[in-house]
Specification:
Elements lengths: L1 H21 L2 H7 L6 E8 L4 E9 L2 E2 L1 H10 L13 H14 L5 E5 L4 H9 L15 E5 L5 H11 L3 E5 L4 E5 L4 E2 L1
Parallel strand pairs: 1-4, 6-8
Antiparallel strand pairs: 1-2, 2-3, 4-5, 5-7, 6-7
Helix pairs in contact: 4-6
């Protein structure tokens, strides 16, 4: 009995490998993003020139090490301060990525922002909220290469996961997991 199970499993694996080899490379790349049993994100931090690709959720549980690495790449690049990013924000980004069927990493303009950085940005007149959700790890300013900024904004608005700000002159969309609102 054990031998036939191994043989069947081996045959199934061979069939899957054969089918996979016929798929174009973009289809294989996209497959890692779209799985009901795991959630995957990839980031490129435009301020630090760092990249990260991680499965951060598997079968109903967040992967602690992956969350730590995501916290690091989304840190305040001015101070180096690292704070936990709200997993709901990661889930929102993952939902956006899935809905767009995108294969490019999110470009992160700003993730976590320390109170000192937030005060500095307010002082120099960048239109920054006094109690910004960036300071709580609940917001990110993003773009997605190959995706029109207005489409990125529309997808975020359609998901109604929180606030969505549109900044076409600065080439990013703000998303957060606060109350639903648009600007």
């Amino acid at each position: 009995m054990e031998c036939s199970t191994n043989r069947r499993g081996f045959i199934r694996l061979g069939i899957l490998a054969s089918v996979a080899s016929l798929l174009p490379a973009p289809a294989l790349a996209a497959a890692r993003y779209f799985s009901p049993s795991r959630r995957f994100l990839s980031f490129y931090n435009t301020q630090t020139d760092e990249s990260l690709e991680r499965v951060y959720w598997v079968r109903g549980a967040y992967v602690r090490r992956a969350l730590d690495e995501i916290n690091h790449i989304l840190r305040d690049h001015r101070t180096g301060e690292i704070k936990p990013i709200d997993p709901r924000l990661l889930d929102l980004l993952c939902a956006m990525h899935t809905k767009l069927r995108a294969c490019s990493p999110f470009h992160i303009i700003s993730g976590y922002r320390s109170p000192a950085t937030n005060a500095y940005l307010r002082e120099i007149g960048r239109g920054v909220a006094k109690d910004s959700l960036h300071m709580y790890g609940k917001a990110a300013d993003i773009r997605l290469p190959g995706c029109d900024l207005s489409l990125l904004r529309q997808v975020a608005m359609d998901l109604k996961g929180g606030g969505v700000g549109y900044y076409p002159r600065s080439d990013f969309v703000h998303v957060d997991v606060g109350r639903v609102r648009f600007w």
